[in-house]
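Page header: ASSEMBLY MODEL / three components / 1149 residues total.
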Amino acid sequence: MNIPTTLLGLLEPEPSHGYELKRSYDTLFADNGRLLSFGQLYGTLNRLERDGQIQVLGASPGGGPDRKQYMITETGVAQVETWLSEPERPEPMLQATLFVKVVLALLSDRPAARYLDVQRDAHLERMRELTTMRKAGPLSRTMLADYGLFHLEADLRWIDMTAARLDQLRDEISR
Amino acid sequence: MTILSADNLTKSFGATVALHGASMSLEPGEILAVMGPSGSGKSTLLHCLAGIFAPDSGTVTFDARRLDTMSDRERTRLRRTDFGFVFQFGELVPELTAVDNVALPLLLAGMRRGTAYARARSWFPRLELAGLEDRRTGELSGGQAQRVAVGRALVTGPKVLFADEPTGALDSLTGEKVMDLMVDTVRAEGTAVILVTHDARVASHADRQITVRDGQVIASGVQV
Amino acid sequence: MIRFGLHMTLRSGREAFTRLVVTALSVAVGVGLLLSVLAMYHAYRDTIGKPCWQCTSTTDAHGSLLWNYSEDEYDGATMHRLDVAIVGAHASVVPGLSAMPAPGQYYVSPALATLLRATPGDELGDRFPGALAGIIGPAGLQSPDDLVIVIGHQASDLSNLPRTMRVGRIQTAPHDLSTSQFYQFGFAMGAVVLLIPMLVLIGNATRIAAARREQRYAAMRLVGAERSQINVVASVDAVVGAVLGVALGIGLYAVLRPALKDIPLLGYRFFDDTITPTGWGFVGILVAVPAAAAISCLLSLRRVQISPLGVARRATPPAPRSWRVIPLLIGLATFIIPVLASPGSSRGTPDLAVLALILVMTGLMISGPWLTMMASRLLARWTVGGSSLLAARRLADNPRSSFRAVSGLMLAVMVGTALAALVPAAIDSQDTTHTSPLRNVLRVGFLQSDRLKPDPGTIDGLTPAQAGPLLAKLAAIPGAVPVPLYQPSQADDAVPPPDEGPMSGPGGQLVVQCADAQRLPALGVCPAGARAVLMDGSAMYTDNLRALNDYLPFIKPDSHATSNDATRQPVSDLMVKVDSQATLERVRTVLSGYREDISPYDTPMTFGEVGDVRARLYLEIQRIVTILAGVTLLVAGCGLAVAISGGMVERKRPFTLLRVTGTGLGTLYRTVLLETVMPLIAATVLAAGVGMSVAYPIARALAPERHGVVLPHPSYALTLCGGLLISVAIIAACLPFLSRITATQNARFE
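Prediction written out in full:
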């Protein structure tokens, strides 16, 4: 789970207050992992600001961290782009990350389907490696490879299902 | 080098467009997985590549010969000599024994009976079917029937094997075994394979995969 | 490829084998019957083609033969007798004889030889002078039952007999059978009637489970079988079944063969060795049936597109339309109109009638699918429930194949109805069941010149000088009561007939002595005191006993008595009451001495025998017709069973699926029953109607004017219902098969 880039992705469509960011994050992804704590949120935002990926637009009267509005920078957008378009290393338990990527892509009108295709290819490539491995090795390695294969297969099924329902998902999150 | 290629194929069945500008190519000895959701046109692509029917437009080239303009008779002959087929349900001739089925393409090609049967029988041990030669199709398990189908597809020494969901009707373990045997055998024979499947595990036996979506090939593996 | 086809046909497991067996058996039934018909036809052609030496009638003043031909009766059979003398060199020889008999010798047919050995001389043998010289061979006979004798005489014995002719050449042309056209027509009808259900049966048999076979061909196409190779394999399959069927059919023919020789098709049996389909017939069947099977198989393959991916019907056949009834209507019109147009002739022109019949039968076949569709609509409208829905859908979906199952039976019903309507009419018009009080009375007419145009050369009847000894001899036979009928004298001729008799006019009047008449009460009672009376005897020579009875008694209370001594007049006719067959034959033996004086048209027969001759003909027709209808029904039943079983095999998969998903076997049974019985009933009603319309005009033409058209006997309705019940039974008998093929434990889908 890449929380900094996720926050960048959420900021990409429009500038936002920290409080709104937390609410978006929790609404979209809380089922996926844990709620985002305020400590984690502001810590991360500070780091992003320090790295030049976001900038503070200005604070509303009243001061305090809640009052700051954040906006993504060029560097931040590039970071989001890179993260989305690079497939994740195919390994078990990726769903949370893949899901975030899809949602962020949809939010920013990026080609989500394409990212999924790239991810699918990465998965298949890994499956081919595992298939080769399981054929060559002893039964113990075969079984290990099978474990990986079955999980990757589950990911792939999820990718296929998601790819087929992107439009529905877009409608849902843009509501 | 390319042994089989398709360029800009279109094919419609009535109002349904199955292929809409599909292109692909296959190298000799290569195993190519064709993936895609149901109804994407992947089976139609296979049927066009195999000369089972001609595309509405576009070209199919096999071994420098144009398949799309060939007569049905020539395509039939080509299917017999240069192509092999393994489909989901084996498509074995139910009334014949296993060895009859394997010998069938050879007999159709006019080979002498003794030779044909000797050659057909030689395939049974390779496919771990020894002893089942004289079983009728109905007396074989699904996995055995598919292996007989593999034998029947490869007995003529084809250049390309067309497999359409070859394990679609089998459980994982049986399917895996059929795939292993099939892949081992085609590797040994140097046969190229078009492997149509929606199953990633099956596709992972391939060297490369392409995805068909909405009648078009989305080339992948390498981004284009 | 042919070898491979053979391999596929013969070694392809149980289902293929069963199909082969059913095909072969069905073809066998058809071929066996076809061969029988051919054999009978050959025998018939052979028989009617034989030279009719009895018909020799061309006189030749320089001929070398004296020829005296006459006919006689024995026990209901006609005997042909030729008295012959050689008067010149190089005399022709009667066919079947090695040489003409020398004076004092005779040749007889085998049947007559047997009879002569078994019968006392005074009943038969004494009629023929001379000694047995030999047996007449088949060349001179029409039937092994023929009673024929050729007797040799001195020329002087024959030369002055009035009926003797001098002939040079014996006739070699066949008998110009007036009935031959009728029999040709009958044969053609019989062949058509048998052939069409047979073709339906063979067609159904070779099409069993065609869809499953086509699936198999698709698999072969996938691995690179060319269309032509598929055609070869399919043809081999059909041909093997057909050849096997022909072989079995020849076996069946061999079984039927002994029975054929006892079928008196023309009223007598055929020579055993002429009953053969001939070598060409066998070869023709052996070639034609498999060829037809192959052709029909290829035609049915043309209708489907067998691609490597499976079988696609070229197109869903459009629903049958109402034009399909047109050929039937045209056929009916062709059949009925000529008959109605000329009520006088009982059967229009045979050629046209055969054509019309073929048109009617094919018309029925063509209109069937349309009818089936209409029936399915009714079924859908009137019924509720799963099975009727399934059945109605199936019928509406493919009325052609549903109809095909019942088509044979429908033809059988049509033929049966037509016959059932015809036969009672024909039989009734003859009224063979009537017995007459004159049944055991022999009557014989003596040669007469026409009294209006007297021919000086002929003797009128038996002169008193001849009649006296004859009457004495007859009276001496125990059990024989002769009653002579005399010619009226000139004076009696003046008396007008009392009433308008059936054929009255001058010459109808005969004189009978009242003393004689008393011994034959059926003639009637003389007015008191009369010695002799004039009576109208013109009805004596009708062969219709019913008509005869209408004119009895001949002596009416108002019959004119005559006082002239009748015994001085010539005897015109003679009645002899006999008490037994032996007495009858003895009487005939005595009469054979007077054969020169007996009118050739009025040979000595009892009234009973005269009636029986006609009755026998009609009984034979009825028997043949019954056999024909039965065989047609049998063939049609086989066709039905084959079609139903085939239909079930074809739909094994959907039926099994229905069963797997919980449809009760009962529902499936009801479905199959409904979808078969509905077209069956529709077809039966139509066929019965058509049969009636075909038969009615003929029946009307056959019916004598004084009798109306006779409706089919109630037994017809029973037969029809029985036939329907049998069909339903056949269908029901096929149902357990359905249970077996759809058993869920066998639910494996290749």
